[in-house]
Amino acid sequence: MKIVDFAKDQGGSKNGGNARPDRMKILEFGDGANKARIAPAIEVRPAAAPAPEPRWEPVSAPTASLAAAPKPKARSPFVGTRSLKMHVLDLGKLRLDKNFMVANSTVAMAKNPNPPGKLIDIPVSAFYIEHPDGNVLFDTGCHPDWAGPNGRWPQNLQDVFPVIGPDDCYLPHRLEAMGIGPNQIRHVVLSHLHCDHAGCIEFFRKSNIIVHEDEFAAAATHYAKRDHSTPYALRDFETWTRLDLNWREVGKLEPDHNIVDGVKLLNFGPGHSYGMLGLLVSLRDNPNVILAADACYTSENYGPPMKPPGISYDSIGFARTIQRIRALAEHNKADVWFGHDIPQFESLRKASEGWYE
Ligand SMILES: [Zn+2]
Ligand SMILES: [Zn+2]
């Protein structure tokens, strides 16, 4: 960098009268050559022709599939220390309109104003867990005497979702066929008290009957009011009140905890019904399993995207529970076994064929 003195360069004398009084200095960067600074000529271009108005052109659809690639499943961590065996019990089916399971399964539209409803047969199930510290049963299915004018279920329930299955499809027959008596079950966990899950509670007089406190209160309220419009079978409830059952209520704020080693009670709270419970079962040779029951009926409800059922007590609670189940499944590398999923239940090994451990 050097200082260039304009007055000197132009040959003027420092003392001469021609000297410019206001000597101008500029700072120049470079190798010292005082090059003339010529402003670049401004090119004047003719004004561009106005752009044509954009036309409404659709974007062609992407050709690649938007479906996410399935993630490989890591091996499940075995979180229990004691080995257990889980038996899947097939307790017949319910025949009902699919709109109960997935809302808006049948939708009328101008070109199809009266679409037929879709009747489907959904599985009813229970799970018997053989454990060295005390056997656990999750859900109990329907009462064998659900039908008829003196049946446990009111006529509206008998009409809306009748049981389809042989006479021996009910829980007492299934356990008896395995050589198991009611007193061999230490804990009966009820996902909730609807008639297709709580129908056989009365057979377990010595067991702990584990139910969410809000579910018990709701069923008791419907019973007190003689309200037959819900899926609680009030004749079942009446029978329970006449027995000295060992109810163990789960508080709404009670955290998830092990009932026995490797069998964790999941306190889902309100959603499908007033107070939902599930189980996380830790298996040694198979993926861990979350028994979701009606907290999530089917894989279609689970999604993603989550699809709501036709009826639920608390639809926001239902959605929140699905998110919770998804997080639990990821964290525990667990499969989710849904409450009434036809293809999934068909794929499971039933008690007559073996067990999961
Ligand atoms: Zn239910
Ligand atoms: Zn159900």
UniProtKB/TrEMBL annotation:
Keywords: Hydrolase, Metal-binding, Zinc. Residues 123-340 form the Metallo-beta-lactamase domain. The keyword Metal-binding applies. Its cofactor is Zn(2+). The keyword Phosphoprotein does not apply. Pfam families: Lactamase_B (PF00753). Residues 1-23, 45-68 are annotated as: Disordered. It comes from the Bacteria. GO terms for molecular function: hydrolase activity; metal ion binding. Belongs to the metallo-beta-lactamase superfamily. PANTHER family: 102 KBASES UNSTABLE REGION: FROM 1 TO 119443, QUORUM-QUENCHING LACTONASE YTNP-RELATED-RELATED. This is N-acyl homoserine lactonase AiiB. It comes from Hypericibacter adhaerens.
